[in-house]
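Ticket closed. Logging final result for MBL fold metallo-hydrolase.
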Amino acid sequence: MFKKFRQKFIFAWLGVLLIGVILVWTAVFAKAGSANLKVIFFDIGQGKAVFIEEPGGSQILIDGGPDGSVVEKLSSAMPYFDKNIDLLILTHPDSDHLAGLIEVLKRYSVVSIIETGIADPTALYQEWHKIIKEKNISLIYALAGQKIKIGDDFLLEILFPAKSLVGQSFSNTNSSSIVAKLTYGKNSFLFTGDAEEPTEFYLLQSGAKIDADILDVGHHGSKNSTSQKFLDAVSPETAVIQVGKNNRYGHPAQETLDKLKDVEIYRTDLCGGIEILSDLEKYSIQANCR
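Final structure:
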């Protein structure tokens, strides 16, 4: 009887080991990524959170939305075992961009962070910096011209701010919002955070290469963003608006939608999460729009 029990125990243990090996190899292949660049505009209500994963498996999160719901979205976008994110970008410290990132810091291992470093007295922003310091995360202050290059085809470039904003105070923090352009092969994305017309005007005057296939519409489609001249210069095929359903701000503004009439528009309040895949040559969009 003992012999039979021992045999059953050995087979059971071998089964556990086999499952463990399968899980390990699954983890290895999953972390290696897919053949496509993946960009997901999360549906997180009235806020912004954009997840980027390049084919090699490197992961970037731009903003985190207004609450911890971004953690659930990440768990769906990333393998269940993966608790590492290479880069967080906080475009500016408004709560609808920052709050979710704090929850991400608590639950994930983050390698580096890019932010502007502006002065902001809110408790949320103080907690953000406290956790960064406690976890000894590499902190980089955004400056136009900074580039993140992965392999031969992936390039993320900071276009704004033009000068260091560290320690500066802003009555309107949207004026400090980071703007970045992602180029992957023949496809390109322009991420604008909550940038408004003064920032757009600067970018036009600076000669920055802001033309892009996909435009992340500034400030949730507010009337204070997406000026006609800026839109003409970007000349997007597709526009994505991250916005909460029936939000109290009336975003997106009808005048912004009117300017985008010749552009294919995707809205998170109507489509839920919006996933864009690029194979270097072309891109495809996955969304369930109502």
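Helices lie at 2-31, 69-77, 95-107, 123-134, 197-206, 228-234, 254-259, 268-271. No further action required.
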